[in-house]
Amino acid sequence: MIGPSIRIKGDVSGDEDLLIQGHVEGTITLRAHEVVVGESGQVSADILAKTIRIDGKVNGDITGTENVVISRLGNVRGNIIAPRVLLEDGAIFKGSIDMDPGDTAAKASPQAAREPAAFPTPENKAPRLDLKSG
User: Fold this and answer.
1) Does a structural domain hold residue 102?
2) Are 105 and 122 in contact (CB under 8 A)?
3) What is d(CA 95, CA 58) in angstroms, rounded to the nearest whole number?
4) CA distance 82 to 105
C-alpha cells in the first residue's frame, strides 16, 4: 500500500497487489497482479496490471490484461486497453477504449502488422479472359 501522505516519482513494479492512496508519478507495472487507485490516490503514470480499479484520479494510459473498472468516484484521462472495461455511472473518463480480445502485448507491435490484408481492387485482380468460340 502507498499511503495518502506518500509521494513516489519513478517506476513502480513488483509481484503483489497494490493499493495506491497517495501520489505516484512515472510508471506502474504489476503484470500478474491487481492495482487499485483508492479515493485519495492521484496517479500521473501509465499502469499495466492484470486487473485495475480506479476510485481516485489517473492521468495516463491504462492496460489491464483481464479487466479495468472505473468506479463512480474515478477520474481518468488517458487511453484504456483491456478485454473487459466497466465505467460505473458517474465515472469521469476522457480518452479511448480498445477492447480487442487479442493479446494486449500485441498492442506494442506496429499498426501495419495487425491490420488485415487489403481487399482486392480492380487494379490488382488477375486479368479476365474472354473466350469466344469461333
Assistant:
1) no
2) no
3) 12
4) 11
> Which grid cell is 78?
488517458
- Euclidean distance between CA atoms 110 and 119, whole angstroms: 20
pTM, two decimal places: 0.75
DSSP characters for the chain?
A: -B-TT-EEEEEEE-SS-EEE-SEEEEEEEEEEEEEEE-TT-EEEEEEEEEEEEESSEEES-EEEEEEEEE-TT-EEES-EE-S-EEE-TT-EEES-EE--SS-GGGGGS-HHHHSPPPPP-GGGSPPPP-----
36 within a domain of the structure (yes/no): yes
Higher pLDDT, 100 or 103: 100
Residue 63's domain comprises: 1-89
Q: Using 50, 70 and 90 to split pLDDT, how confident is the model at 114?
A: very low
